[in-house]
Amino acid sequence: MDKYSELIESIDNYIYKNFTAVDEYQKKVYESMTYSLFSGGKRVRPILGILTYKALSGSDDYEEILPFAVAVELIHTYSLIHDDLPAMDDDDIRRGKPTNHRVYSEAIAILAGDGLLNMSAEVLSKEIETYDDLAKVKKAIKAMKYIFTASGVHDLIGGQVIDIEYNDDMNYDICEIMYKLKTAALIRASVVSAGIIAGASEEEIASLEEFANCVGIAYQIEDDILDEELDQKKEKNTMLKFKTKEELLSRIEDLTIRANNELDSLEYDTTELKEFAELLMNRGK
Amino acid sequence: MDKYSELIESIDNYIYKNFTAVDEYQKKVYESMTYSLFSGGKRVRPILGILTYKALSGSDDYEEILPFAVAVELIHTYSLIHDDLPAMDDDDIRRGKPTNHRVYSEAIAILAGDGLLNMSAEVLSKEIETYDDLAKVKKAIKAMKYIFTASGVHDLIGGQVIDIEYNDDMNYDICEIMYKLKTAALIRASVVSAGIIAGASEEEIASLEEFANCVGIAYQIEDDILDEELDQKKEKNTMLKFKTKEELLSRIEDLTIRANNELDSLEYDTTELKEFAELLMNRGK
Question: What is the annotated signal peptide range for this record (chains A, B) (predicted)?
């Protein structure tokens, strides 16, 4: 991922900007929020947002998309902290480190998650407040609405509800819906919000949505396969319960083709975006 | 509170509008969200927002402020659900009913809280997306930023952090800071966002902030005194640990005078707002 180190640095710097001037009372919760924000996340979602923006705007200056890309990363991080809690997946380790609540207590982990979700709305409203052009403001509000719909009960949170509620009655189709909500939703939020800010048409947005859904589902299947190989997976709801590894690898291949087709349908140079998406969908290779 | 039943009906109807078209997977979390939204909350924050808006705009039509008033109520409700969790205050009863996690499980209660906070951002971005006038959009974004700053780590969430972190080392001054963050922050969010939407000047906003802080702190002290009398209070961080009831009643009197003075400094008819605020600050009488 060395190729993306400049992007990652910009993303990290933008995140850091929001953690200044903290007083005594908030130190611990800020520490807990930054612990999870800077513990090995690959910044997949913000990088996808930036590369989508660069492709569609034709510009190398991606400053405009950073607040949106970072907002999605804040939401992603909060969802991981809450998903790991004892009442949810009860995970002790994430990315090779103790989970947030193991380090900071359950109470602080819940509040740190709340703080990150809240901060995503703060970051976006602070940014949009500085705009003075109605067309620009309207695109930004539309992108913000898209992001918070994707992170809401019908998408991201709904996916976690399925994960909690379905056990013995889980099947392949519900599992696919779960992947679409739990994993693809925020990938879609990154990609589509970037498309909106870059001025994409409704038709182009539909292609970006389909592209992002394919990437998101393939990325999650790939994750499951890698976890299984590392033998780190506890008894969890994954497609490996219903299909063989070979069947799933062929599903990833289909999704990769569909994702590429959607990008090819766009009249932009999507080389960089395609390359990064393929990397995500085929990490095991 | 019969006098406010029309306002409460408008608020409740606006809340309901956001809970339609739910599919199978989300039913339980929607049920959990609406359980806490409709279990005896007095709609104090949205009513304060509406009355502030009516006073400053001079209009009886308060439709414009409803999304902001409701956003604050959604945030307030999520914070109660999360505060009641076993890892936090571990409360079994709220407003005479079982707390959310006692009815729906801890996992669903965490997700319902997340869903409500997320929904507040959805409600606001959906509303603002419909605006076509730059000045109106800019006021709305400013109000939104104010709300999410008040609900963030420096205010609302910070107040809960103090409640969790301070026990034997709690004192009167830190307790007052906690009340300002935990209780006054969202009252300030309601009142000030309404002022911003009604077009208040910076000076007027400063008066509204001071008014709301006084109301918020007095309201919390009143709450502690009433809880103590009902003998329902577990060992919690309240000012009654450090002052007598008489001292606190006299503090409420001071805060009431200061709140009224702030309203009197405004060149608007604030009779209705003052009457409601006095009701909140002196519920025991």
Answer: none
ipTM of the complex: 0.96
Residue B20: pLDDT band with limits 50, 70, 90: confident
Residue contact B23–A154, C-beta within 8 A: yes
Q: Considering only CA atoms, which of A163, A85, A82, A66 is closest in space to residue A117?
A: A82
From the number of C-beta atoms within 10 Å of its C-beta (0-12, 13-18, 19+), residue A187 rates as: buried
Other beta carbons within 10 angstroms of residue A59's beta carbon come to 13
Q: Which two tokens stand for residue B183?
A: 């209780």
**Rounded distance between C-alpha atoms, residue B87 and residue B90, angstroms:** 6
pLDDT of residue B234: 59
Residues 174-213 of chain B whose Cβ lies under 8 A from any Cβ of chain A: 177, 181
Q: What is the 3-state secondary structure (H, E, C) of B141-157?
A: HHHHHHHHHHCCCCCHH
Chain A hits for B85, CB-CB cut-off 8 Å, are 110
| Integer Cα distance of A91 and B89 in angstroms | 23
Q: Which two tokens stand for residue A227?
A: 């976890």
How are beta strands A97-98 and A93-94 bridged, if at all?
A: antiparallel
Distance from CA of A125 to the nearest CA of B (A): 5
Give backbone dihedrals phi and psi of B94, rounded to 5 degrees, phi first.
Answer: -140, 130
One-letter amino acid of B285: K
CB A107 within 8 A of CB B161: no
Q: What value does the mean pLDDT of chain A take?
A: 94
In Å, how far are A161, A170, A177, B69 from A174, measured between CA atoms? Answer: 12, 6, 5, 37
Smallest CA–CA separation between A196 and chain B, in Å? 13
Q: At what angle do helices A66-84 and A44-57 cross, to 10 degrees?
A: 160
CA angle A27, A113, A87 (to 5 degrees): 120
- Residue B91 tokens read as 């409360």
**Closest approach of chain A CAs to the CA of B272, in angstroms?**
31
* Tokens matching residue A189: 């939020």
> Greater confidence, B133 or A285?
B133
pLDDT single digits (tens) B235-255: 678 898 899 999 999 999 999
| Cα–Cα distance for residue pair A263/A266, rounded to 1 Å | 5
State residue B196 phi and psi, 5-degree precision.
Answer: -60, -45
Listed in sequence order, the DSSP H helices in chain B are 5-16, 27-37, 44-57, 66-84, 100-104, 106-129, 134-150, 156-165, 172-179, 185-197, 202-230, 245-264, 271-281
Residue B25 above 80 pLDDT? no
Spell out the domains of chain B, with CATH numbers in brackets.
2-281 (1.10.600.10)
Q: Which residues lie across from B93 on neighbouring strands?
A: B98
User: Using the beta-carbon criterion (under 8 Å), do B129 and A145 form an inter-chain contact?
Assistant: yes
CA–CA dist A155, B25 (Å, integer): 10
A195 three-state secondary structure: helix
| DSSP assignment of A93-105 | EETTEE-HHHHH-
